[in-house]
Write a structure and sequence with these properties.
This is ATP-dependent helicase. Keywords: ATP-binding, Helicase, Hydrolase, Nucleotide-binding. Pfam families: SNF2-rel_dom (PF00176). The chain has about 550 residues and is an alpha/beta fold. It has four domains: about 10-90; about 110-315, 3-Layer(aba) Sandwich (Rossmann fold), CATH 3.40.50; about 325-330 and about 385-550, P-loop containing nucleotide triphosphate hydrolases (Rossmann fold), CATH 3.40.50; about 330-375. The protein has helices at about 25-35, 50-65, 70-95, 115-125, 140-150, 165-175, 205-210, 235-245, 260-270, 280-285, 300-310, 335, 340-350, 355-375, 380-390, 400-410, 425-435, 475-480, 505-525, 535-550, and strands spanning about 10-15, 15-20, 45-50, 130, 155-160, 180, 195-200, 215-220, 245-250, 285-290, 295, 310-315, 325-330, 395-400, 420, 445, 465, 495-500. The strands form four sheets. The chain has a seven-stranded parallel sheet. The protein has a six-stranded parallel sheet with strand order 13-18-17-14-16-15, with helices on both faces. Strands 1-2-3 form a three-stranded antiparallel sheet, with no helix packed on it. Helix 2 packs across helix 3 (about 70-95), helix 4 crosses helix 5 and helix 11 (about 300-310) packs parallel to helix 19. It is globular, with a radius of gyration of 26 Å.
């Protein structure tokens, strides 16, 4: 049966959307079941994006239910389908073990891309956009540098503490690229350079320059910083950078930090058409979860879709898993009791207050509970850290609150702790890293959210202590990635979670389990729940040695 003999409706192109009309009710039901981004209550006329992926699906649907369409629209549809098939075939060819990587010019002698990096380089070159989710330490930075060699000038957007690292550790010693770090939010006459390094904190001042199309490539390092989308100033600015660049590249081993719906914001900066408008995305992929949060209904299916579309690439390392240990530390109920009256007042507002009062009180209660929990167990965490430090084991101690840091500094002062938190300037942070690598201290206190992308600590440390918990489980993966990466000499990485059965810890651990499953399905579809490796034997041995020294 062909469309001319028995059409089941009409299909026509309107701008960048397909419009379907005159669809019989029984076919409309099938249509909405297959294309779930169409509202179940919509009737008579339906629209879908004219992307390669959607056009291929429409062509497949029309094999069963032919639609009437003009000759020009039919040719356009065939071109889209052909592009989809060609793109998928070329992607599969690139990812084959026998693929031959082309030579890439611009690296210094003895430097260049490894095979898996060259694969990513070629994918973004052919597609024009890619979310690169390779595991920490896989060299995602190298892929961005290689693309910058062919798409000059390039804009690279990084977290504030990583700007100098990009230039001094990667671009200058490894490539022939020239680089300039953008200073501030006030535009000025840019010096000639191949690569311009922006911070997420200053791109909003440079949207007028980006709007001219001056930057041929925009690469977002740790792109999870854009997970709130256009609700933030940096998100709105990044939208201008993405819309006016020829190529878009996102880098992050942890693109989903909380619930799976964050991937919509992330992908909108890489390929805005792939997941469609927000309303269509949540209709097709999500459901409303507890607390009014949009959660992805089938994370594995969404992850597979992103990979099949060639928009997301992720490879993980083989090797021994991180040794994750959970220890119960002492909780100072007296410390917690100091804020009991304030906590009670906030709790009453959450339950009985107006919508605005309740929301504000809930945020304040959350902040208070986390700070109090951190302070109440701070001495217990420090006591545990002291066992390792007394044995000469370098550690990274991660927390969040300044009050907690102060307790740790007091309790561990004999070990001369170094600080890398939100209170230190970029220069102070660089000095702290240098001092740690020079072995001036074995104790490196870091903010849970200050170390993403930081390189070098693996040269000294293989033990991380999480002294305060975070609402996002992916924060831990970024933290452990500071030591679990190329250059690590130890055979095992140990991650120690110091928790208690009081305060905010039990609730955070429960929520983390849900969020972890959302992220796992999208980034690693089909892998299933990964068993946690736990071996406390060497920790028990260190504790016994510490007791023996204390009693001597």
């Amino acid at each position: 049966m062909n469309a001319a003999e028995a059409p089941y409706g009409r299909l026509q192109l309107d701008g960048d959307r397909w419009v379907l009309s005159d669809v019989p009710p029984h076919v409309a039901i099938r249509l909405k079941n297959m294309f779930q981004r169409i509202s179940k209550t919509q009737t008579k006329m339906f629209t879908l994006p004219a992307s390669n992926e959607m056009s291929a699906d429409l062509a497949w649907f029309m094999e069963r239910y032919p639609f009437e369409m003009s000759a020009s629209d039919a040719r356009f549809l065939k071109r889209r389908v052909r592009s989809f098939n060609d793109d998928r075939a070329s992607t599969e060819a690139i990812l084959l073990p026998g693929w031959q990587a082309p030579p890439i010019r611009g690296f210094r002698p003895g430097r260049g891309l490894r095979f898996h990096q060259a694969q990513a380089f070629e994918l973004v070159k052919r597609r024009g956009s890619l979310l690169l989710g390779d595991d920490v330490g896989f060299g995602k930075t190298w892929v961005a540098m290689a693309r910058a060699m062919e798409r000059r000038p390039a804009a690279v957007v990084v977290q504030s503490h990583l700007a100098t690292q990009w230039v001094n550790k990667f671009i200058v010693p490894n490539t022939e690229l020239t680089a300039h770090i953008i200073d501030g939010t006030q535009p000025y006459s840019l010096p000639a350079a191949d690569t311009y390094i922006f911070r997420y904190s200053n791109i909003h001042g440079w949207t007028d320059v980006a709007a001219t199309g001056y930057f041929k490539l925009v690469a977002y390092d740790e792109i999870q910083d854009l997970r709130t989308g256009d609700t933030s100033e940096k998100g709105r600015a990044a939208r201008v950078f993405s819309e006016n660049a020829e190529e878009r590249l996102g880098l992050s081993a942890t693109p989903v930090f909380n619930y799976g719906s964050e991937i919509w914001s992330i992908m909108s900066y890489i390929d805005a058409d792939l997941l469609g408008p927000w309303e269509e995305f949540i209709r097709e992929w999500c459901h409303m979860g507890a607390g009014g949060k949009w959660m992805v209904t089938d994370p594995d299916a969404l992850g597979s879709y992103l990979r099949e579309a060639g928009a997301f690439l992720r490879r993980v390392r083989d090797g021994r898993p991180i040794n994750r240990i959970v220890v119960d530390v002492a909780y100072d109920h007296g410390e917690a009791a100091k804020t009991e009256d304030l906590a009670r007042q906030l709790a009453m507002k959450v339950v009985e207050g107006s919508f605005g009062e309740s929301g504000q009180a809930a945020r304040e209660l959350d902040a208070l509970a986390r700070r109090v929990t951190g302070m109440a167990k701070a001495k217990g965490v420090a006591a545990y850290a002291k066992i390792l430090l007394s044995s000469g084991i370098p550690i990274i101690l991660a927390g969040w609150h300044r009050d907690v840091y102060q307790i740790w500094l007091d309790e561990l002062k004999e070990f001369k702790p170094l600080m890398y938190t939100g209170s230190e300037t970029g220069r102070q942070k660089d000095k702290a890293v240098a001092a740690y690598l020079r072995r001036e201290s074995d104790c490196f206190i870091i903010s849970l959210r200050s170390g993403a992308g930081l390189d070098g600590l693996q040269e000294r440390c293989a033990t991380v202590i999480v002294g305060e918990l975070d609402w996002s489980p992916q924060i831990y993966e970024q933290l452990f990635g500071r030591v679990d990466r190329e250059g690590q000499k130890q055979t095992e990485i140990t991650a120690i979670f110091c928790t208690c059965d009081f305060g905010s810890d039990p609730t955070i651990m429960s929520v983390n389990a849900v969020k972890r499953d959302q992220a796992r399905g999208i980034t690693d579809p089909g892998v299933g729940i990964i068993p946690v490796h736990t071996d406390v034997s060497h920790i028990k041995l260190l504790a016994q040695e510490y007791l023996e020294r204390s009693n001597a």
